[in-house]
Write a structure and sequence with these properties.
The complex is a heterodimer of chains A (316) and B (320).
Chain A (H helix, E strand, L loop, with lengths): L1 H4 L2 H46 L17 H8 L1 H34 L3 H12 L5 H11 L8 H6 L5 H4 L5 H26 L3 H9 L4 H12 L1 H16 L3 H6 L17 H10 L4 H26 L7
Helix pairs in contact in A: 2-15, 3-15, 4-9, 4-12, 5-9, 12-15, 14-15
Chain B lengths: L2 H5 L7 H10 L6 H29 L4 H6 L8 H13 L4 H33 L5 H13 L2 H14 L7 H7 L3 H14 L2 H9 L4 H9 L4 H16 L3 H6 L8 H11 L19 H27 L1 H4 L5
Helix pairs in contact in B: 5-16, 6-9, 6-10, 6-13, 7-10, 10-13, 13-16, 15-16
The chains are: A mainly alpha (316), B mainly alpha (320).
């Protein structure tokens, strides 16, 4: 009996599975379609459009596509502020990225070493300051760096600063943007690294304790190597973000003259230069070219790190 | 020397280990030095993060002369806070209320659109296999690493092509693209949704859409919380986008509004001779209160969202 019916069964099963697989695939495409469309419109689209515009000539005000060749890129490199802005952002990156990451990791480790209500309270305190961002952050920074009203005035005055202009000047900007960025951004990363430390299996640490490791040895030899991927992740995002610095120098300088404007160059970062190309000089071609150069730097750094470490979850 | 001896690993401490041992030998755990150092560093940074916020709150209660004369962390008067509030409300006939309303509207639109679009996409990338899937994942990863500010200028030109510049859609539509949301949802489902559960439901006759709605979505609350938090703060604080894409000040959100307020009034330099075109009579208290209007909603969200950041969803996105 069973032998008679069995030959027809696999066939039925196959056709059923085939139509259901087709149906499933169709559903899958329906699920990703809206996402793909917005990605095309607001992720890949602007990028590709910028590429097109970077070869367009804007000397008449309207774009003449492919008329400029590499002229826009040359114009960017020849621009007298090009080197200035890239040296500025370079100084800022050299200071802000290693210092920011080191302090975040140290604070996360110190907090997580001895969990308790006090440690939780401090972590929350660090975290909440992330709510102060953008223009408000710059506003707070201006107040904090004004020796006449700052709560840190004793410190500022002991360093010999009497006026805001003594504190905020072209040479101090990389340090100031580092302090500002750390104030606003560190809390989130401390929480992320804290979460990574929490995820370390307790058996591992207990075994180390039994073997006679003290707290500092556990940090250096176990915890630190295990959270390395998250540190790399932080590096990628911080680097890509900091290359694009715009809001802080634009509000501090940028011709807004917030009482400190005289001391801060109107165009300080490369992203401001791109903005300046587009909206002050009307040269959208050069603006696109510069945006793409910045994009390439951020992506290049990310790509190298992904290749070296191969840690992003994109398998199977 | 016997063979056993040569095979034995070298257990003599290196100079660095000796040095470390010296400093760490006190106490059984971190040592006295470690204890003191730990608290010194933690409290120093607590001051760094807390004092500016405390100052911002207290500054709303002081007049410009009081800010100079009183101790920086002293309280002025409630009356001064009320005055500052009054002045802000009166600024440009209540424009701050419009900006606040715009901020809320843009943020809610962005939150709704981006989550509705990115969560189903992340889910299906995790559970289904179809041609183009890997490409989509790679594009997600790449666009995720692009800071939004990198795309603002090209976006301006693109939106200009469709005559959307200086409309609310110039801010809302781009925010619908949230690659980080898709990526995190993908990782979450790929690592924690049991396939057997889905197969069992399929046998029971669940359609693919029903699987998502009845099984996957209810399991997603940890990742949903994290995504909502990141999305909310990103969009609430969005400055570069609206700054470039909007000219009409009645369309501004709070970040662009506060920038304009500070630039157009004497709020930051009440003691100086005003330059022409600057509105006088505004003091630091007004600027500080304005800042607080923008910060307080986010601070409340931050307080509730911390557990989502520490919980495993975020750390799951990176290979251990």
């Amino acid at each position: 009996m069973t032998n008679q019916t069995s030959p027809s069964l696999p066939l039925n099963k196959a056709s059923f599975a085939g139509s259901s697989r087709l149906w499933r695939r169709l559903t899958a495409y329906l699920f990703v379609l809206p996402y793909f469309l917005v990605m095309l419109a607001f992720g890949l689209g602007p990028g590709l459009y910028a590429l097109l515009l970077s070869f367009a000539d804007f000397s008449t005000g309207l774009p003449r596509y492919f008329a400029a060749g590499f002229g826009n890129y040359l114009a960017v490199f020849k621009e007298f502020r090009f080197t200035f802005t890239f040296v500025n952002i370079g100084e800022f990156l050299v200071i802000s990225v290693p210092l920011g990451i080191a302090m975040v990791v140290i604070l996360a480790i110190l907090l997580q070493m001895r969990p308790g209500p006090l440690s939780t309270a401090l972590r929350t305190l660090y975290f909440v300051s992330g709510a102060v961002t953008g223009p408000v952050l710059v506003l707070v920074a201006i107040f904090m760096l004004d020796p006449s009203i700052s709560p840190f005035q004793a410190l500022l005055k002991s360093m010999g600063f009497q006026l805001t202009n003594d504190v905020i000047y072209a040479g101090s900007l990389p340090v100031i943007f580092t302090l500002i960025g750390f104030f606003s951004g560190a809390g989130l990363w401390i929480a992320i690294q804290y979460g990574a430390l929490e995820a370390i299996p307790t058996e591992l640490l207990e075994a180390a304790t039994i073997d006679g490791a003290n707290a500092w040895q556990k940090v250096l030899l176990i915890k630190f190597p295990l959270i390395r991927p998250y540190i790399i992740y932080q590096f990628i995002l911080i680097f890509a973000g900091n290359v694009q610095l715009f809001v802080e120098p634009q509000i501090l300088g940028g011709g807004n003259n917030l009482g400190v404007g005289g001391n801060v160059p109107a165009v300080w970062s490369p992203n401001q230069l791109a903005y300046n190309f587009a909206f002050e000089m009307g040269n959208f071609g050069a603006a696109s070219a510069l945006s793409l150069i910045l994009l390439a730097i951020g992506l290049g750094a990310a790509y190298l790190i992904i290749r070296w470490t191969g840690f992003f979850n994109i398998e199977n | 020397m016997s063979k056993i001896d040569t095979l034995r690993p070298d257990t003599r401490p290196t100079p660095l280990q000796k040095w470390m041992h010296f400093w760490m030998r006190t106490g059984s755990d971190t040592g006295i030095l470690g204890f003191g150092l730990r608290w010194a560093v933690l409290l120093l940074f607590a001051a760094y993060f807390f004092i500016p916020m405390l100052w911002l709150v207290l500054a709303t209660s002081k007049s410009a002369p009081q800010l100079l004369e009183m101790s920086p962390l002293a309280f002025g008067s409630f009356q001064r806070i009320q005055e500052a509030w009054q002045r802000i409300i009166e600024y440009q006939n209540g424009e701050v209320l419009i900006w606040g309303f715009n901020s809320v509207r843009y943020t809610i639109w962005a939150l709704a659109l981006s989550l509705i679009i990115s969560i189903p996409a992340g889910y299906i990338l995790a559970v289904a296999r179809f041609p183009g899937r890997r490409l989509l994942l790679w594009l997600t990863l790449i666009t995720m690493l692009l800071p939004p500010s990198a795309l603002v200028l090209p976006m301006f030109m693109e939106l200009n092509l469709f005559h959307l510049i200086n409309t609310q859609w110039a801010v809302i539509l781009p925010s619908a693209f949230f690659p980080f949301g898709t990526y995190l949802t993908y990782i979450y489902y790929a690592s924690s949704l049991p396939r057997d559960l889905l197969d069992a439901a399929r046998v029971d006759g669940c359609s693919e859409a029903e699987l998502f709605w009845h099984i996957a979505l209810p399991l997603a609350s940890p990742v949903l919380g994290l995504l909502a938090f990141i999305n909310f703060t990103t969009n609430w604080n969005n400055f570069f986008g609206p700054y470039v894409l909007l000219n009409d000040d009645r369309l501004f959100n709070l970040p662009v509004g506060i920038q304009q307020f500070v630039a157009a009034t004497s709020a930051l330099r009440p003691g100086f001779n005003p330059s022409p075109g600057i509105m006088v009579g505004y003091q630091q208290a007004e600027a500080a209160l304005f800042g607080l209007i923008m910060v307080v909603p986010v601070a409340i969200v931050f307080l509730f969202a911390q557990r989502y950041v520490i919980g495993g969803a975020f750390t799951g996105s990176v290979k251990g």
